[in-house]
Design a protein that fits this description.
The protein has one domain. A two-stranded antiparallel ribbon has the order 1-2. It has 164 residues and is mainly alpha-helical.
Length: 164
């Protein structure tokens, strides 16, 4: 199996299984909270909103962004370039993807530093009345940006080869 197919399968697994399970958990926590609050007059899941907001929603986003980028659901800046002749259009495409890759590389560096700092300082978040470590959620941010950066670099290489 080639490298890109393995990466794409990994991204699909993250999105389908990881983000899908996060979405199901979000729905279950929401339903349990509503049932408890309005029918039983108790909080069945203390800190349910915080659990969704600080754990499952960020995980859902981190797991779905790489495949969304690869499949082209992110906005692209080449829409105006489509009206140009072939060579200028290809040059603009290479330039745009190259700028995207540089932005993702800088973002990757900053996220790695932030995540390492948070792990080093043992940052926590409050969930209900308890405190939970942030590192299990934070480690998905550099992974997501790395996958998006890898895809951007692949697109730079593809567009550069098409330019020649």
């Amino acid at each position: 199996m080639d490298f890109w197919k393995a990466i794409w399968r990994f991204e699909y697994g993250l999105a389908a299984l990881g983000a899908g399970l996060c979405l199901i958990v979000i729905m279950l926590i929401t339903v349990a909270s509503v049932i408890g609050r309005y029918f039983l007059q108790i909080d069945l899941i203390p800190g349910g909103y915080n659990i969704i907001e600080r754990i499952f929603f960020p995980l859902l986003v981190f797991m779905a962004v790489p495949i969304a980028h690869r499949e082209g659901t992110f906005p692209r800046f080449e829409l105006l370039a489509d009206t140009l002749p072939d060579l200028p259009r290809k040059l603009i495409a290479v330039l745009v993807v190259l700028v995207e890759a540089v932005v993702y590389a800088v973002l990757f560096w900053l996220v790695i530093r932030f995540t390492a700092n948070a792990i080093d300082q043992q940052r926590t978040m409050q969930i209900g009345t308890g405190v939970v470590a942030m590192w299990p959620v934070l480690i998905f941010a550099p992974l997501m940006i790395a996958l998006v950066l890898l895809e951007a670099l692949r697109l730079v290489w593809r567009d550069f080869r098409q330019l020649r």
